[in-house]
Amino acid sequence: MDEKYVITENRIMKENECLDRFVRVISTKEELEELLERIPYIQTIQAPNSKLRKELYQSAMNEYDDIEWVKVIKSVYIRMEDKCYEEYEPQYMKMAKQFLYGEIAIQFGLNFEEVEGFVNNAIERHLKEFE
Q1: Which of 61, 68, 78, 109 has the greatest number of beta carbons closer than 10 A?
Q2: Span 78-113, pLDDT tens digits
């Protein structure tokens, strides 16, 4: 990858096309490989009520950090599976996926639509190593 990609407050874009201030350069392929190994062990966001949960999601998103995005995705996914989520939660998961999956798509040369399957396969592969 010759082009340098950056994360702005709203999206991922090529550095040379970025007119806004950017938050950080996207993670390296090696950093993302390590993250994929760690996903099963990353804690979810826990909150005693909806108001605090929303604040914690927003705080996590404002970090612009891969681990925080994983926390949001995992937290909302579990709550959706349990059918006990608030109407605002899927939007936070979507935002977290846009950033995290965007980084993975760029670094691994995937289409955005392929990333979720790629992530799931990587998680399964790493978990099988510990069986």
Answers
A1: 68
A2: 999 999 999 999 999 999 999 999 999 999 999 999
CATH number of the domain that residue 73 is part of: 1.20.58.1290
Classify residue 12 by its DSSP letter: E
Number of domains in the chain: 1
User: Considering only CA atoms, which of 60, 82, 84, 55 is closest in space to residue 72?
Assistant: 60
- The range of the structural domain enclosing residue 116 comes to 29-128
Does residue 51 form part of some domain? yes
Strand order in the sheet with 5-7: 12-14, 5-7, 24-25
Considering the entire predicted model, what is its pTM? 0.93
Within-domain flag for 24? no
